[in-house]
Amino acid sequence: MAKKVDKPLWAGRLAQTPEAEAFAFQASISVDKRLVFDDIQASKAHAAMLGRQGIIPKSAAGQITRELDAISAEIKSGKLAVSDNAEDIHSFLETVLTQRLGDAGKMVHAGRSRNDQVAVAFRLYLKRTVAQIRSELAGLINTLLDIASSNVNSLMPGYTHLQRAQCVTLGYHLTAWSSALERDYSRFADALKRLDECPLGSGALAGTTLPLDRKSTALALGFNRLSLNSMDAVSDRDFALELSSAIGITMVHLSRFCEDIVLWASEEFKFVELAESWSTGSSIMPQKKNPDFAELIRGKAGRTAGNLVTLFTLLKGLPYSYNKDLQEDKEALFDSIDTITSCLRMFAGLIKSAAFNLKRMKASCTGGFLEATDTAEYLVRKGMPFREAHETSAAIVRVCIKAGHKQISSMSITELKKHSKLFEEDIYKAITPAACVRARDLPGGPAPKEVKRQIRILRKKIK
Predict the structure, then answer these.
(1) Which of 47, 171, 327, 458 has the CB geometry, 3.0–4.6 Å to 152, for a possible disulfide?
(2) What is the pLDDT of residues 130-173, one digit of tens each?
(3) Gap between the Cα atoms of 389 and 384, Å rounded
(4) Are 336 and 240 in contact (CB under 8 A)?
(5) What residues are annotated to the active site?
(6) Which of 210, 218, 177, 215 is nearest to 109 (CA)?
(7) What pTM does this model have?
């Protein structure tokens, strides 16, 4: 016969309890034990409020608070281990409290349900976590901007369709990455605004008849406001969806950056040399130096996208209000949190130690006719309509390709004038890679002075 489990906290109504395998199936301790200190914090605030309101004796509230502090210290020191046999972290803590304090420990749950207890601990944990993710993002952005600041004049090709398009700089490219990450930084701040409300006191779905002071509890826990509607407070997981989405978007950005790194590290590009400590070898090919860290970050982006879909699917068919399905919200989000945290750190270390081959990048700006658009715009400045200038530049490129030339400047001024009399000797200075970059000094452009301005703005936004 299967072994029976200990009587759970909710078993008052039931004459029988699940057998061990069934109990383990519906338990969540393996996932939610990371909420232990958040649940302790919330329980302390709740107990103190119960004492102030006269719902439980002040002496009992003091006992509960002191014992919760002792439990917290014991868990941190390793003296007390969270039991994997408990149903969840909330039940574990209440059981320990009751074992130690007797009737006083049994008073801690007055006026609350596990529904609002779980929701408040979850939100407290995520508030801390969002701050940590934003800190990691800010550190990565500053790392990228430091490298960008040193390379505002370092020429390289910019690409569209993975084809050489126009001359830019390494500083400009890294500032583009940083711009995407700054939006992520801001997106997490926006998510935090909606996360920052206290559901404690909502009970199972309709509050309680006990005279709780919800405002004082929310203030003690550092929340900006109370949840407006108790049914919504225990049903809502919008904050989990929003954070999962923000994480997924950030991971997509990291994945795209890593795709650039993987390409740049190839023999065909040779734009970057990754540090050996951020590379791996091959078990069969002795010569290989693989960008595995970049590839893994690129791959892990798929996990976070999958976790977002998991949450959407979890929520889409649930009736109001609380359902046991919501227990599945944490594993997906916690996995995404762990994934983005490690990936941000790994990418920062990888990029900080990378050596960029600036000579190779600059050389790649010659050939491929990256100056073709600048040639057309030269003619526009001379008075030619753009569409005609575009056709003229395209015709010159075709002639160059047929003649075996790799750049427009290979043609003599006499040859250029056959295409338009507007060409003068100044065309050769106008279409060098450096000149093309300097001339693009509009807001958002790659001109060194403008990139420096973009860097200043980004630093200010994440300060």
Answers:
(1) 171
(2) 999 999 999 999 999 999 999 999 999 999 999 999 999 999 99
(3) 6
(4) no
(5) 161, 282
(6) 210
(7) 0.93
